[in-house]
């Protein structure tokens, strides 16, 4: 008797899955029974160039173990391309059950040196891309009263990192987008969650290494393989996660974290209201005890990955 796999009968779109984290997610989705749309524009980290090589290569890997997959080379960075990605799933496999918004690029630069093009390009792929593909799938999920979104956020946005204002803003925006989707589509049985992955990939490979501290950080990341992210993505796509929505998880090698979401941590009250002077004299001294420090991700996740 054949054992039922966790994603049998499911159709999953994985954007940016020609390599790195996306590739491992696509492979594991297929191994657990999903039919996969492998999307990758075949571009460099900066978004230049175009070919269908990476996506088709992953499809070939999936077919080598008798999985089902199709390659797609549309860009997530415009609404029409995102619509074609979702339509690809419908045309080839007849339905869509999960979207993994994984596509991304990096254009790291200190904020005071960042160009409009560097800002816009990263926002377009990460934040707009996640919106466009999710929006294209939402009506189908609503109609069938089921569906799952898995979005890739980052501790660069949730906590902070140097020289990544564009990436950090996009990734924190994705966390807000995911929560809004979870709230708006809950009544239709649709779920939306985020993963903040720690993993060495072709995108992370572009991190500037210009100090001993950065070198040590990159050495840590290299220990964490993209394959470690895939099990959580597969779970979140499955019916076993039917009651999991609106959450932010982080995966760091063999560790899975549930991340906090912004909530009040301390308050002050003055019956007669506030003036700038009383804020300086009373409010800030009282609130200062709970101020957040200027941490970067490596300060918070300071221990070696296990």
UniProtKB/TrEMBL annotation:
PROSITE patterns: ADH_SHORT. Residues 10-203 form the Ketoreductase domain. InterPro entries: KR_dom, NAD(P)-bd_dom_sf, Peroxisomal_Beta-Oxidation, Sc_DH/Rdtase_CS, SDR_fam. Keywords: Oxidoreductase. SUPFAM superfamilies: NAD(P)-binding Rossmann-fold domains. Its EC number is 1.3.1.87. One of its GO terms (molecular function) is 2,3-dihydroxy-2,3-dihydro-phenylpropionate dehydrogenase activity. SMART domains: PKS_KR. It is an enzyme of class 1 (oxidoreductase). Belongs to the short-chain dehydrogenases/reductases (SDR) family. PANTHER family: BLL2957 PROTEIN, DEHYDROGENASES, SHORT CHAIN. This is 3-phenylpropionate-dihydrodiol/cinnamic acid-dihydrodiol dehydrogenase. The lineage of its organism: Bacteria, Pseudomonadati, Pseudomonadota, Betaproteobacteria, Burkholderiales.
């Amino acid at each position: 008797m054949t054992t039922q796999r966790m994603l049998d009968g499911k159709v999953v779109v994985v954007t940016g899955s020609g390599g790195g984290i996306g590739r491992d997610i696509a492979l594991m989705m297929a191994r657990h029974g999903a039919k996969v749309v492998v999307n990758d524009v075949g571009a460099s980290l900066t978004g230049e160039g175009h070919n269908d090589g990476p996506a088709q290569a992953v499809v070939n890997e999936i077919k080598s173990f008798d999985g089902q997959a199709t390659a797609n080379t549309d860009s997530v960075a415009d609404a029409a391309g995102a619509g074609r990605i979702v339509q690809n799933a419908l045309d080839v496999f007849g339905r869509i059950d999960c979207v993994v918004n994984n596509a991304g690029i990096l254009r790291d630069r200190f904020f005071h040196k960042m160009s409009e093009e560097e800002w816009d390009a990263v926002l377009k792929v990460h934040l707009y891309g996640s919106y466009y593909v999710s929006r294209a799938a939402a009506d189908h999920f609503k109609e069938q009263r089921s569906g799952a979104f898995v979005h890739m956020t980052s501790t660069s946005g949730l906590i902070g990192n140097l020289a990544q204002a564009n990436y950090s803003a996009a990734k924190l925006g994705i966390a807000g987008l995911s929560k809004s989707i979870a709230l708006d589509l809950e009544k239709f049985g649709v779920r939306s969650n985020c993963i903040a992955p720690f993993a060495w990939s072709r995108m992370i490979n572009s991190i500037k290494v210009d100090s001993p501290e950065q070198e040590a950080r990159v050495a840590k990341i290299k220990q964490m393989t993209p394959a470690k992210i895939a099990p959580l993505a597969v779970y979140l796509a499955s019916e076993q996660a039917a009651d999991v929505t609106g959450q932010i998880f982080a995966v760091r090698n063999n560790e899975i974290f549930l991340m906090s979401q912004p909530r009040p941590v301390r308050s002050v009250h003055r019956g007669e209201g506030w003036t700038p002077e009383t804020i300086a004299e009373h409010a800030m001294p009282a609130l200062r005890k709970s101020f957040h420090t200027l941490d970067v991700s490596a300060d918070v996740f300071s221990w070696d990955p296990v």
